[in-house]
Amino acid sequence: MKKTYECIAKEMEKLYEKKVGDGDMEPIVLEINGNSIGRIKDGDAVVFACRRGEREIQLTEPFVLDDFSEFPTVKFSDLLFITLINYDDRFRERVKIAFDFPPISETLAEVLSKSGLKQLHAAESEKYAHVTFFFNGRRKKPFEGEEDLLVKSLDVDDVSKVPELSVHELASAVADKLSEKKYDFVLVNLANGDVIGHIPDMDAKIECVKHVSTALEKIVKTALDNHYAVVITADHGLIELGMLSLNPPVPNLGHTTNPVPMFVLLPDGETSLKKEGRLANVAPTVLEIMGINKPSFMDHESMLLKKPDKNYPVLLIVVDGWGIGPNDKRNPIYVAKPKFWTELFEKHQYAKLSASGEDVGLLPGRPGNSEAGHTNIGAGRIVLQDEVVIEKSLEDGSFPKKEAFLDAYKRKRVHIISMLSKKSSHGTYEYALKILQEAKKRGVEEVYIHFILNRHGVEGENAATLLRKVGEKIEELGGIVATAMGRKWALDRDKNYERTEKAYRALVHGEGIKAKCQGL
Predict the structure, then answer these.
(1) Which of 103, 1, 3, 9 is closest to 513 using CA atoms?
(2) No. of H helices and E strands in the chain?
(3) What is the CA radius of gyration of the chain?
(4) In angstroms, rounded to a whole number, what is the distance separating the alpha carbons of residues 446 and 133?
(5) Of 97, 132, 358, 410, whose CB is crowded by the most CB atoms within 10 A?
(6) Which own/partner pairs from 387-395 qualify as long-range (CB within 8 Å, at least 24 positions apart)?
(7) Which pLDDT score is estimated for 1?
(8) 247-283: buried (b, 16+ CB within 10 Å) or exposed (e) per residue?
(9) Residue 351 host element (H or E)
C-alpha cells in the first residue's frame, strides 16, 4: 500500500473548499478497493496517545465502561485499551496507564476545605475543567464545602460572530452568588481571551476584549459591594498579541510567553504588591488575605508587601489568555481601550507574573497554557507538567518502552489515537511515531493511526499539509493512517454524546466520509 494517507488528505481539501476547518471536520475513514481499513476489533490493542485527560474521557468511556448507555456500542471481550495518562479513576481497573501522575496535595481548594470554608468555582463549559480538575490538582471530585457552577458555552460553528460567548450569563450568575454572601472563596474563569484569541479575526478579538471588560466590571463591583477582596490575574498570554505583525498582517493563533497582570482590590482600601512573581504566588496571596496559614507544600510567598488590617473572603478571577502586550495596534486590548480594564491599570497597582516556561513547570521557552496556568495558580508552587516528563522520556528513549505499551506489542493489531500536531497541549504526532516504530520492531503485524485534528490548524499550516509529511514517515515505518477527524467529535467534554458517537462509529464501524483508494 502506497500513500493511502493521500486519499485522506484529498478529502480534507474538499472540506476546506466548503469552508470546513480542521477542528470541525467530520470523521474521514480509509477505504481501499471498497473495504474499510483499520477498524478497531476484538483482540486488538488501542493506545489513546493524548495527554491532559479531561477531553479524552468521553471517547474512552464507550470502549471501557461496562455500564455505558449513551449510545449503542460493541461489547468487546478482549480489547486492550491503554491511555497515556490517567483520564478518570473510573477507568483504572479497565485500562493500562502509561504515565500515571498522582493528584497534587495541599492545593488552595484543599486547604480551604480542611479549614471548613465554603467555596464556589465557576466557568462556562469551555473552561470548566480548569476551575475544577486542574485548579484542584488533578482531582476529579469537588472538595467538601465546594460548589461548582457551570454555564453552558455556546454551540456555534463560528465563534467570531459571538465574541462575547457566555461571559455575560456567567457574570450574572456569579454576581448573584456573590450577593448571597455564603462563600468564603469564589473562583471564576472568563474564557473569551483564550477562545477568541485563537481565531484570525482582529475585529472579533477587539469586541471580545470589550465584552470581557464589561463582565469583569460587573463581577468586581458586586464583590467589593459585598465586602470581598478581589484578586485578578490570568493563566497565560494570548489575546494581547492579536497580530504578530501588521505589515504584512499576520494573525497570532498561539499562546505567548508574556507575563500576566495581578491586581488585588480591597473593599475599603489599597494594598501594596511586589512588582514581579509567578502564578505560584497567587494561592499564598489569597490565603494571606483570608488570614489562613499556607501549608509547607506551598513554597511560594504572598505577593502582598503588607498584610491587610483584617481578613476578607476572596474572589479570584482568572481572565483566560490575557497577558501584558505591546502598546500598539497589534494588541486588541490596546486598540479597544475597554473602560474598566483601562481603569484598573490607571488607578491600581499591579504585579507582573510569569506564566510560561519553567516558571509553570513547562519546557524552557514554552508558552503557557490553561492547564499549567490553573494548576500552578491552585497549587501555590511550580508543578512539573506532564508534557515535561513525557518529553524527557522521548529524549532518553524510554517513552515507547513503557510497561503499558509493552502489553500492546503482544497483539497482532495495534491502533494509536493521536493528535495530528507538533505541539498541542493534548500531545503530538511524535507519540504515535515512537509507538509505531517500537511496535514494528517487536513484530506487530498491523498498526493503524487515527488522527485528531486541531481546532485552528497546525502551527502555520493546515492539517492536510502536515498529514502528507507525517503520513510519509508513518508509511516508511510500516503503519497506515486509517482515520482523521476534528477534535469537535473526538474530544468533546460537554456531554454532547452525539458527537462522541460519531467518532466512535468511525473508529469501530468505519462510518464517516469515505477516503476511497483504488488499485492499491
Answers:
(1) 9
(2) 17, 19
(3) 23
(4) 36
(5) 132
(6) 387/51, 387/362, 387/363, 387/425, 388/361, 388/362, 388/363, 389/99, 389/101, 390/51, 390/84, 390/99, 390/431, 391/363, 393/99, 394/430, 394/434
(7) 55
(8) eeeebbbebbbbbbbbbbbbeeeebebbeebbbbbbb
(9) strand 351-354
The rounded distance, in Å, linking the Cα atoms of 365 and 348 is 30
Does residue 9 contact residue 467 with C-beta atoms inside 8 Å? yes
Sign of the four-CA dihedral 75, 81, 84, 87: positive
The backbone torsions φ and ψ at residue 318, rounded to the nearest 5 degrees and listed phi first, read -105, 110
| Phi, then psi, of 255 in degrees rounded to 5 | -65, 160
Question: Residue 236: what pLDDT?
Answer: 98
Q: Which three cell numbers stand for residue 457?
A: 490548524
Can you tell me the distance from the alpha carbon of 96 to that of 86, in angstroms, rounded to the nearest whole number? 9
Highest mean pLDDT among 96-105, 333-342, 459-468: 333-342
Q: For residue 341, which phi and psi values (nearest 5 degrees)?
A: -60, -40
The one-letter amino acid code at 99 reads F
Separation CA 197–CA 208 (nearest Å): 9
Indicate the average pLDDT of the chain: 95
pLDDT in tens, 141-150: 999 999 999 9
Confidence of residue 220 (pLDDT cuts 50, 70, 90): very high
Domains, the chain, in order of start with CATH, read: 4-100+388-517 (3.40.1450), 108-382 (3.40.720.10)
Q: Which of 21-25, 81-85, 230-234, 444-448 has the lowest mean pLDDT?
A: 21-25
Q: What is the mean pLDDT of residues 430-438?
A: 97
Check if the beta carbon of residue 409 is closer than 8 Å to that of residue 437: no
Whole-Å CA distances, 226 to 85, 181, 184, 223, 266: 42, 7, 12, 5, 11
Name the residue with cell 498561539.
254
The single residue listed with the C-alpha cell 499556607 is 294
Grid cell of 207 as nine digits: 469586541
- Cell 504515565, located at residue: 99
Beta bridge partners of 415: 46, 448
